[in-house]
């Protein structure tokens, strides 16, 4: 597998799907035993980003920094499947999400 084949710079938020995430996580496409869990993680992370930024999918598509937060969150949830700090949101995620949050006036 060529892990350099995906152009991350032109990827929209809504383009990030199971295949894209497996590529990002460096999981071979034919390895499917975690696909259901990865899909759940993708949906969870997407909901979290949508809720905490108060932005639409269209707005997130125009906010490139949201992609790295989204992908990093997916990676963190996939690779660290144990809860070590209770129910608190990682301060790094909170800080990053505040940077892309839509400000309501």
From TrEMBL:
InterPro entries according to UniProt: Phage_gp6-like_head-tail, Phage_HK97_gp6-like
Looking up Pfam families in the UniProt record yields: Phage_connect_1
Lineage top rank: taxon:
Bacteria
NCBIfam families hit by this protein: put_DNA_pack (TIGR01560)
Question: Could you identify this protein by its name?
Answer: Phage gp6-like head-tail connector protein
Taxonomic lineage of the native organism: Bacteria, Bacillati, Bacillota, Bacilli, Bacillales
């Amino acid at each position: 597998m060529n892990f350099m084949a995906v152009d991350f710079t032109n990827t929209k938020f809504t383009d990030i799907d199971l295949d894209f995430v497996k590529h990002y996580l460096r999981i071979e496409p034919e390895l499917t035993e975690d696909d259901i869990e990865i899909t759940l993680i993708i949906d969870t992370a997407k909901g979290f980003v949508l809720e905490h930024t108060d932005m639409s999918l269209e707005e997130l598509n125009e906010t490139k920094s949201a992609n790295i937060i989204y992908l990093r969150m997916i990676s963190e949830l996939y690779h660290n499947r144990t809860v070590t700090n209770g129910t608190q949101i990682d301060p790094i995620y909170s800080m990053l999400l505040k940077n892309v949050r839509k400000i309501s006036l």
